[in-house]
Amino acid sequence: MIKYKHILLWSLGMAVVLGLMSFAHNRKKQVLWQQTQISVAQEQSRPFVTQQEVRSIIARHYPLSEGIPLQEINIALLEESLDNHPSIKKAEVYSLWNGTLHVAVQQHEPKARVLSAGRSFYLLNDGGTMPLSTNYSAKVPLITGAVPDSLLGSLSNFWNTVESHAFFADFFSGITVAQNGDWILHPLPGQHKVLLGQPQHLDRKLKKLEIFYQQAVNSKNLDSIKTLNLKFSNQVVCRKN
After folding, report:
1. Number of domain units in the chain
2. For a tag site, which of 7, 103, 150, 213 has the least CB within 10 Å?
3. What is the pTM of this model?
4. CB-CB contact of 240 with 223 (8 Å)
5. In this structure, what CATH number is given to the domain that contains residue 83?
6. How far apart are CA 230 and CA 190, in angstroms?
7. Over the stretch 28-69, which tens digit does the pLDDT of each residue have?
């Protein structure tokens, strides 16, 4: 007897659940698209993509925009179209029962700007690239010289390394890549250059450079230095003006 009661209760529970699901599904058919709320992360400080651009992308698929049933909105299609924007890293689209379509956009955050062989673009933290934006010009380090695509990953890794470094965060204004592949770093303090050489053993070279700055250089004689050469093992060769 108890067994039959359990089966009956389970059946009733399933019927209630299915009924609620059917009610929710039918109600969603009736909910109209009333408004669109758009949020763009870092829009105020780094507006690579604006809310108006996001609305324009939505309007390509839904020219009449608001007023249609929420169920007719292809969320996956909108997210894919937004993700294809060169300045957008990730987009999330979802709707609510009150008829609001929410669009949350995360922008790319460039690590540096590359100017080489007539090309100019932003370098991203994963080695990818982003075209320049007509909305905003980011204040990031500049990479010039001979910069083939095969080098972008190494350059991105370098900026990720120095950004997380307690001493070298925001220390370098840019890099020049020589024709032979050597890297020349441009520190913000002083007027000198750092000859890094080939992009190998970066951790060891940066540690060596940090020790030199901390122990051998002060603000009085920093301007007298022309170059610091890190190409040689266990030493920093300093050349003065």
Report:
1. 2
2. 150
3. 0.81
4. no
5. 3.10.20.310
6. 17
7. 557 999 999 999 987 667 789 999 999 999 999 998 767 789
